[in-house]
């Protein structure tokens, strides 16, 4: 037998540990070389782990295990080939069981895997007080899978709710109305935090406790921006194949002002007590994903055209939501923009994305009455919030930055002309 050990590879300079989020191949399955066998979740992205050789896969680690770089994940028995697979070995094992029965009549199982849980399933069973007799395995050879346990837990929960529901009383020959048992649920469940969620939590607490964070507010009238988009949208789409959105306009406005106000685009090196200035604007765009918020940067936004920014944001958002962002695409960023308005947020105080020193929060557009040239007019208004690190950015600087961004957006022609 020739065994190849599969260990957690070096992923990045700052990554010392990963979580095995899920197995892509069953324990005992035949795998080809370079075929993905599992997924790792790091602090920044989800990565597939390919087989280093062809053969029979032998699980060592379990789903949701935290593994250090270099830790043993699985083994591959290269003596097993695609032609014979693992079936002959299983048949041989079953024959031995039959012979044993002839000597000593002991009940035999259908297969070595029948009724046995996978590592992830066993963990869930222990957490929910379930045994193998409570679950019918639907995996290969009757193995109990994680999904089987989840179904059993759901069935157990529903059964307990039905038993606790009061019996229906009859009055005057009719059934009295009874409150839905779900309204009286007292169930508590636990789920391990994903590595990305844990990292996000750690960074947010660090930003809250490690910076002198303040937030300043302003509001912007988007009448001219909306008129610009309406007038040129069709031509823009026809030429570039993508719509002119709000994000490219806000990104371009921020990039322009960042080049004029380097303090807002800078960061503190706590180890050397130095301020690091950047002659470029790498603007991180907050993107919501099923696993949490990610902030990949649009590099050199100050030098890009509007359509280039729109295309880059679309590319990054697509990769973020299907989990294919690379570590290089997550690196960097000198300033962040987050748009809570897409979820209906009217006002918020965004938290700084360390080691950056400032973040702009966009919000939902509201039609509100405004005084314009002595008259009351209904205008599309948006509140803007700039959270900043007061250790490096003064209050006057933060207010000036927000006012400059506001002016560019209220007169977008000046943004287009670069004046």
Describe, in plain words, how this protein is organized in 3D.
This protein is an alpha+beta fold and 419 residues long. The protein folds into three domains: 3-77, OB fold (Dihydrolipoamide Acetyltransferase, E2P) (Beta Barrel); 87-160, Dihydrolipoamide Transferase (Irregular); 196-417, 2-Layer Sandwich (Chloramphenicol Acetyltransferase). It contains ten helices and 21 strands. The chain has helices at residues 87-103, 119-128, 146-164, 195-210, 223-240, 246-260, 306-322, 327-330, 395-410, 412-417; strands at 3-7, 17-23, 30-31, 36-41, 46-50, 55-59, 66-68, 72-77, 170-171, 174-175, 213-221, 267-269, 274-276, 283-285, 287-289, 292-294, 297-298, 335-339, 358-362, 366-372, 375-389. The strands form six sheets. Strands 11, 14, 17, 18, 19, 20 and 21 form a seven-stranded mixed sheet that branches. A four-stranded antiparallel sheet has the order 1-8-6-3, with no helix packed on it. A hairpin with a 2-residue loop joins strand 15 (287-289) and strand 16. It is elongated and about 80 Å long. Residues 86-109 and 167-171 have low confidence and may be disordered.
Could you give a quick summary of the protein structure above?
This protein has 419 residues and is of the alpha+beta class. The chain has helices at 87-103, 119-128, 146-164, 195-210, 223-240, 246-260, 306-322, 327-330, 395-410, 412-417; strands at 3-7, 17-23, 30-31, 36-41, 46-50, 55-59, 66-68, 72-77, 170-171, 174-175, 213-221, 267-269, 274-276, 283-285, 287-289, 292-294, 297-298, 335-339, 358-362, 366-372, 375-389.
